[in-house]
Amino acid sequence: MKVTRLLILTLFFVAAPQSTLAWHDTGHMIVAQVAYLKLSPAAKARVDKLLIPAQGRRPLIHLCAGYYTPATCEKIYDPVTIAVWMDDFRGDSINDEYDPWHYINHKPFFDGVPERGSVGPEPVNVLDRINWSMNSLRKGTGRDKTDAEVLGFLYHLVGDVHQPLHATTRYTAAQKDGDAGGNGFPLKMPEEAGIRNLHSFWDAAGGAFGFQSPKRPLDDAGKARLLALAEEVMKAYPLEANAAAANDLEPLHWVEESNALGRAVVYKNIKEGDTPSKAYTDEAQRIARMRLALAGYRLAGVLNKMFAAS
């Protein structure tokens, strides 16, 4: 089955058109936009109910420095921007407990050093939390606000698990404790790119959409741009042509795919301290576009199945 899934994935590795504007905010919102375009009417109605407030009502999810008012709340969320909510509240020590939610040390990559059976995933990890989110929404929490928050977790984590370095860590003689999914793998990049390591290079989709995230709240131009980018990756990797992979809704398989890509592609043809070559960058961008499209299709598939009777 694993071989079959990897063969299916190779169908995604076709030439994709280049674009200019990151699995940072942009990448996550592309996943959400692709998913939104593929929601069934019932699933869309439930997502809209949780994430689009009625006229005059405040949204169920928002981040405000003080008491909520539409004029002063700096971050509110809709079915596209909800995908970055988990990153928005990172960086505060009170939320450190959520950090392990974003990744999994699946099948550690021992590069030139003996394998160590003591190394492996933490009990709480991205796979564990995706399954928890799906099960919680399937049953329903009994409260719309809590459902909206769990939905926000699911949106973000499905995006994260499709980034190869959120499921792969390399161990070497120099890094016996691992490189934390490429965070300890330095790269040499232009200052303006803001990229310091292999992980951030892949989080930014290899620069497929530029290295700067769009300003939020999104204006009409920003919304149009995200829609165009979502349509671009969908055109490059159509759902109809890749239905077998897109319809695989088992989160463990998503982890296994990312880990396989990490081993076979991400850590190949690049050394610590390198500037990524054009060939490496082109490959990273192709894979990133493929994974973003796939994440969006799968997220929609999960939500369509979950909210079929909404």
Outline the fold blueprint.
Layout: H1 2-10, H2 25-37, H3 41-51, E1 62-63, E2 75-76, H4 85-88, E3 109-110, H5 126-139, H6 144-161, E4 170-171, H7 198-203, H8 220-236, H9 243-246, H10 251-266, H11 278-306
Parallel strand pairs: 3-4
Antiparallel strand pairs: 1-2
Helix pairs in contact: 2-6, 2-8, 2-11, 5-6, 6-11, 8-11
Separation of termini? 33 Å
Structural class given helices, strands, pairing? mainly alpha
Share in β-strands: under 5%
* Helix-strand string: HHHEEHEHHEHHHHH
- Estimate the mean pLDDT confidence: 89
Radius of gyration: 19 Å
Percent in helix: 40-55%
Largest sheet: 2 strands, antiparallel
Secondary structure tally, helices: 11
Which sequence of strands runs across the widest sheet? 1-2
Count of beta strands: 4
What is the overall shape? globular
Oligomer type: single chain
The stretches of 5 or more residues where confidence is low (pLDDT under 50) are: 10-22
What would your notes on this structure say?
The protein is mainly α and 310 residues long. Helices cover 45% and strands 3% of the residues. It has helices spanning 2-10, 25-37, 41-51, 85-88, 126-139, 144-161, 198-203, 220-236, 243-246, 251-266, 278-306, and strands at residues 62-63, 75-76, 109-110, 170-171. The strands form two sheets. A two-stranded antiparallel ribbon has the order 1-2. Helix 2 (25-37) packs across helix 6, helix 6 packs antiparallel against helix 11 (278-306) and helix 8 crosses helix 11 (278-306).
